[in-house]
Amino acid sequence: MKQVWKLFSLLAGLVLLINACVPSAAPAADSAGETTAGAGTPITVWIDTTRQAAVDAYKKANPDKAALIQEVLVERGEFPAKVLLFNNTNSGWPDVVFAEPSLVGQVSDTAHNFPLDLKDLVAQEVIEGFGNSLAPCWFEGKLFCLRNDVAQNVLYYNAKLMEEFGYTVPTTWEEYQELSDQVAQDHPGYIMGAFGDQWNWATYFWGSGCPMNEVLGETQVRINPNDSRCERAAMLVDHMIGNGTMAKLDPFDPAFVQIAADNKLLMIIDASWFGEYVFGGKEDSTYYKTAEGQLGIAAPLKWRDDPAPMTATHGGAAWTVSRHTANPDLAVEFALFVTTADDYQSTGPTFPGYLPVADKWAKTIQGNALYANDPYPVFKDAVQYISPLDKQPRYDWGATTVKFLKEANQNGTTQLAALQLIAEELQKVAEAQGYEVVTE
User: Fold this and answer.
1) Contact 300, 385 (CB under 8 A)
2) Which of 194, 193, 234 is nearest to 210 (CA)?
3) CA–CA separation, 268 vs 256, rounded Å?
4) How far apart, in whole angstroms, are the C-alpha atoms of residue 389 and residue 102?
5) Worst-scoring range by mean pLDDT, 27-36, 202-211, 251-260?
6) 137, 141, 209, 107: which is closest to 391 by C-alpha?
7) What is the pLDDT of residue 17?
8) Chain centre to alpha carbon of residue 412
9) Cβ pair 130, 147 in contact under 8 A
């Protein structure tokens, strides 16, 4: 027995000696196989110039952690390609990234493997506070981002012109088309919409429920140009292009800006941020140089036989956290602050994705002499109508769509005919990304 205890003592001493030789600085691995570190580990945050204010707000509210936040200005369109590069070198990943949910989708596949699932790291009541705005952030039951802002579409109209002409603001797409015929006849040269980029396409096709990029699951997407919801949207656009009330331009094309400058823009359907940052009523605004109560805001349109409106978005970004972060506590804390904290979002530049803050943000636009009516209730109500098609696939649907949209515009062919060409190309792109394509 004494020999056994002597052997045991020798083995225990050997274990202690081995442990003493192992470096203690190595971070521990979590259950997902990613490394974690202490609270003092800095994090890198990728932002654009506008989001510098978000970083500054966090540092001001958390001076003890200010030195741990290392912001870097990045062109976020390069995000997916850079993630692949970092994966190849097994280093370099940012901890938090400001990007659209469509880009988050592109880095959520197996090859990129970037976002951290936030579902169990964010309180359920906070998740519920985002409402429908988080729809594009959910991927197969995993929450891969938190919305910074919502770019829900609403109907903007020139209130003074509408009153002068004796027109009624439409509430359905059918009324919208009927009004276009009246405008074409009685006030030719006045414009009711733009159709020159992929977001203009989404305005009408997502707003109709057209399943051209309907994400059914992680590996399945529906692309059906023959769906009646696609055809009715295409025929509406073709009708208005035909009668001259729909400009074959994007809203930032100099020729379209001139239409607004000439006071020929009767209405346009676009994002909530258009009010402040495109119409504006300031010298540096794109459309209006003076704020004279001329801009009316109305609810998203619905198709007459549909139970409720469905509206597209034009942008609206989010914050995503890397699953490779060495300080997940700080990274998640930062993402939560910049999406939910009054210190930043209540005075931020765009409609917050987190609705409890949005109610406080309302004061930034209410009372603005630009508006003919209070825009905030319309903006808030529109969030619930954001189309489920706003859930983005992993591929870039916009590049393909806008290619054929512009070709149809230039060649004088119809957007109804372009649907088939868009669908054929989208199917190839989707299958190249590993999707099974459902066509019915």
Assistant:
1) yes
2) 234
3) 11
4) 11
5) 27-36
6) 137
7) 33
8) 31
9) yes
